[in-house]
Amino acid sequence: MFGILIAVILLIVYGSLYPWVFEAHHLAASALHILLHSWNVNIYDRRLLFDMAVNVAVYVPLGMSAHLAFRRFKSVAGEFLAPVALGALLSASMEMLQLYTPHRQCSAIDLVTNILGSAVGVLAGVAFTEIVEVPPTGFGFRFRDRAAVALLFCWASSLLFPLFPVYYAAAWRDKLSAFIHAPPISPIPILLCAAEWFAVGRLLVAAGAKRPFRWLMLLLLLAPAQFAIVNRNPRPADLEGAILAGWLFYFFGRGPGRDRAAGIALCLAAALRALAPFHFQGPPHAFSWIPFIGLLNAQWQDSIPILTGKIFQYGAVIWLLHRGGLGMARATVVVTVVLAGIEALQTRIPGHVPEIGDPLLAVLLCLGLCARARQRSIAE
Questions:
Q1: Measured between alpha carbons, how far is 75 from 134 in angstroms, rounded to an integer?
Q2: Nearest Cα to 362, choosing from 185, 107, 330, 246?
Q3: pTM summary value
Q4: d(CA 315, CA 150)
Q5: What are the tens digits of pLDDT across the range 58-116?
Q6: What is the phi/psi pair of residue 277, to 5°?
Q7: Is the separation of the CB atoms in 156 and 222 below 8 Å?
């Protein structure tokens, strides 16, 4: 449970300081003094109740995970008071740091509602332990293939990053308007999306999910969830491809030879996506031998989902082809050659940055998967 608690804390820190732009300036008083005297509230602001509800909800997971983690100490103070104190300390720290961010405000109201959320989380943890038998040492998660779990994590990150919610109704309207006016049927994007989701189903099987189809259906909610994330603009093809993949997985996803088929389909999908819109022009533009130069020159909010998406795609293709009987080395050679060919073709496609990064990433992923497999064999 301490791992879950740390993850919750990191997410709160990330969301509280997003987009991580700071400005150094002189404060009229100490940060703590400003925080304790920042009670200015406009009771006629329609967003006030909404903001308070959000602040409470954000800290509920902190209070709950802290309560479950501190149960091992078998102390009333540790189980009930420490989570609330942790929430107060974390919230106060975030509010004072927001004095140095250009688009955030330090507010004692936020501090109080965050503390209230931590207390509600403790109550939720107590109710949870009454319903479910949770040992003091926490949950014992066991996965058959942790490499598959890591790839699934990268896939989910590519869908949901930057993990920051949309607050304003105007942004929701813009997203929905773009979705409604997008082409209702786009065969190629639908098939490409379906290939990714079908690979996710095979990864769930390898990870040891007891009911992989049900888990896949649950994960389908990540597609519409992108409406609630900044910088994410789902298209009809994303939802249609996910639904098609669920149907294919239900009827054809659990038989022999499905890993190789899923790997080939995902490899073709990655190639087609990288070569779109297939407008080849000459003469070729320069090829860069500096790895990941395109990602390094982009904004980090855009680079991270692209990188995690590539890690999922290339890693999953290697992993699926390996499980399909091709072997890790041969699978890596196939993927590396395909990616090198794509980069060569991209020298004649405007708007692309052909470079050595993707083939190199495939080799690095092979080394990581091999190291994970060796570690697993030693443990067994």
A1: 16
A2: 330
A3: 0.79
A4: 10
A5: 999 999 999 999 988 888 888 899 999 999 999 999 999 999 998 788 999 999 999 99
A6: -95, 20
A7: yes
